[in-house]
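Researcher: Structure prediction, please.
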Amino acid sequence: MLAGLVILGVAITRPDARPALAAPSAFRTRAFAAVTRLLAVLLVPIAFCRSPGRSRFLACQWALGLRFPAEDLRGLAPETLAAFTHARAEAFWRYGQLISLTSGYRDAAEQQRIFTEEVRRTGSVAAARRRVLPPEESGHVRGLALDVRPTEGARWLEEHGGRYGLYRVYDNEWWHFEYRTVEPVRLPHPGYRGSAA
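Model: Predicted structure follows.
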C-alpha cells in the first residue's frame, strides 16, 4: 500500500507521525488530486488518438469529469465554457490545481426559486440580494457565471483567470466568477447599488 501511495505522488511522512485533526480531509483531497492527475496522464494517449493537437486538454477534461461527476457544463455561453475549460486545463497541467464547477447555467425558474428561498430565509428582498440576484439580473441565467470549488481552485482562478476573461466579481463570494470581455470593478455583494446600498 505504501508503494501505491508513493506512486500516486502523495507525500509520506514518518510512520509514527500523528496527523492533525484536519489531516484526513487534507490527505483525502491530495489523494483524489493525485489519482485524478494519474488518470489524466493515462488518458493522454487515448485523447491523442482522438485529437492529436488537443490531447492534454481532452485528457484533463475527461479526468476532471470523472473526478467531479455531478459537474454540469451544459447551458454555459460558448465563450464562458471555452474560457473555463481552458483555464482549468492550464491550472491542472501547469500548476497541479483542480477546479470544478459547482453551479453554472441556471434557467430563470431555478434562479427565481433560489432568490425566493433567500428572501424567505433573510426576511427581505434587500438582504436576499446580498447573496443572490433575481433571474433578470443573474449572470447564471445568461450562462456567464460560474460557481467553483475548491477554495484553492478559486484562488488560482482569481489570480490567473483574467487571461481567460474570468473574474471574481463580488467580495463576499470567493466562489463566483463571471466571463467578461473587460475586467469589472469588484462589488461588495451582488445587490450592491453604489452608496445607496
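Model: Strands lie at 100-103, 145-149, 166-168, 176-179.
Researcher: Thanks, that helps.
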